[in-house]
Amino acid sequence: MNIPKTIAAMLALTFLLACSPSDNGNQTGVATDPLPSWNNGDAKQSILDFVARVTDPASPDFVAEAERIATFDNDGTLWAEQPLYFQFLFTIDRVKELAPEHPEWKTQQPFKAVLDGDQEALAAAGVPGLLELAMATHAGMTTEEFERIVSEWLDTARHPTTGRPFTEMVYQPMLELLDYLRANGFKTFIVSGGGIEFMRPWTESVYGIPPEQVVGSSIKTVFEVRDGEPVLVRLPEMNFIDDKEGKPVGINSHIGRRPIAAFGNSDGDFQMLEWTTAGDGARLGVLVHHTDGDREWAYDRESHIGRLARGLDEADARGWIVVSMKDDWRRIFPWN
Amino acid sequence: MNIPKTIAAMLALTFLLACSPSDNGNQTGVATDPLPSWNNGDAKQSILDFVARVTDPASPDFVAEAERIATFDNDGTLWAEQPLYFQFLFTIDRVKELAPEHPEWKTQQPFKAVLDGDQEALAAAGVPGLLELAMATHAGMTTEEFERIVSEWLDTARHPTTGRPFTEMVYQPMLELLDYLRANGFKTFIVSGGGIEFMRPWTESVYGIPPEQVVGSSIKTVFEVRDGEPVLVRLPEMNFIDDKEGKPVGINSHIGRRPIAAFGNSDGDFQMLEWTTAGDGARLGVLVHHTDGDREWAYDRESHIGRLARGLDEADARGWIVVSMKDDWRRIFPWN
Question: Is B197–A143 a contact, with Cβ atoms under 8 angstroms apart?
Fold first, then answer.
């Protein structure tokens, strides 16, 4: 046997395979990077490896396309959440807009605190106060009216520090990740503590995620016929809180199967990652860690918004990937 | 102008167009009938016309693919519901199976009625009795345990009069309709009064409808970690009843947009059709009317199961299509 010739043949074959258009994303023989805004490093490589394993029919970890469910938290995972959850900024704007119809709000907490810009009084109102503000601004109209209110707000409102529309406060690396997963047969869902009907009007155009793949917190709605016209009316009563232990419940209710990949950024996502990664076979749990005080915001254990402590403590032992925005992301916002 | 020649040219062109493979489902010049188990008639033609109008980009009624949402009731619309809802037959079998662990059921209603086969006592127990039976048999286990119980029952249980597995008690014309709509870019959903987790284990293999496109009634579930293993536990408490006024609410909660087509068979589907067909643009509302006492069952206004009265009274005025199983369906079950 002529060994050098065999090796030469193998090298030629390897070269041919490497240059085969079917093995690459383009015709030049160099694969296109599906995640160009991610720095090359462990986090990116772990994601690429996971997708390769579950999509390769020859892999022991292969997962049928129908089972390739990936769930994403929204606030702090797909778009920013500082200086306050954007839905809370929407609530504040709505209180100001509705104030002329509610003269009593001038003296009634927590509305007075919002109108006076009194942070201390607002904080003192606590969760019951926030809930009261939410119900006063999110209920009492039809679902279609609420959708129009949200869309109009997003068209005109601007982020308080960047001056950008809120729908531009999304993370470019995550947009690429959503596209990359879908190109590999994944069905992508949002599973957020935010209001389901606050998100649905814009997730399709911004994230490519249609309304039926959005899971979130909700208030009760009822069906009514008004002047012969059927409508759904939003009631000032919580229906479901899609946070912490609620996330696996919301996933089960809306999706009906366990995801194989879950992406979050706070301890509100802990149970979603726990539920996802406890399943059989290859699983991916990812936490986005807000480490970049220059390009975004830096916060974790002590933050009132997007607190991340238990997730950081247990990620290693659970095999979850912690993505450092500062180190792993070349670009943060699409306009950077 | 030579008129006969022009007409001849037009005829030739028409013939060419009619024979173009791109205009037909096969290569022989004869279009394949997408609904072979439907007799040619008004009902079939109305469905074909609707699909043609909403999928033709040149039509004023064109609907973008993402908006082509079609919702289907299950019991009596996709599969049979006589002599009793199949989920109730499951409940009866479960009571009998669990009875050895519950000696108290021998003397306690409504369980005693089930164990004695006492229809009168069962009827006397009413809705509270049925709910008690449902909770005793559908709760107290994890979601995965319940899925296994349902799957095992479907593997072994047989329909009391036909002797067929329940998953064969499905309507062949509706299977064809589901395929036809999906081939035309529709996303098909089940919206049923039946239990969401009773349907999800089998809708994908039987109807081609994945779990995330199944909407139904539900009981409450909670997330727990048992011996380090996260589980979802089913509680004996109703969460949502997806029937009548509940159907538009369930659609809004799960799908987040109004369907353009809805299919039902009873007054429990009235509001779903009302909500669907009140939207702008082309809309399709269809009621399956159980008119075939020989091949299936004949019932409507006076039936305790699948009662259809208001729907029959108002279908014409609302432009809904009433499908007569006897006249419009060439075949009813796949095994006919």
Answer: no
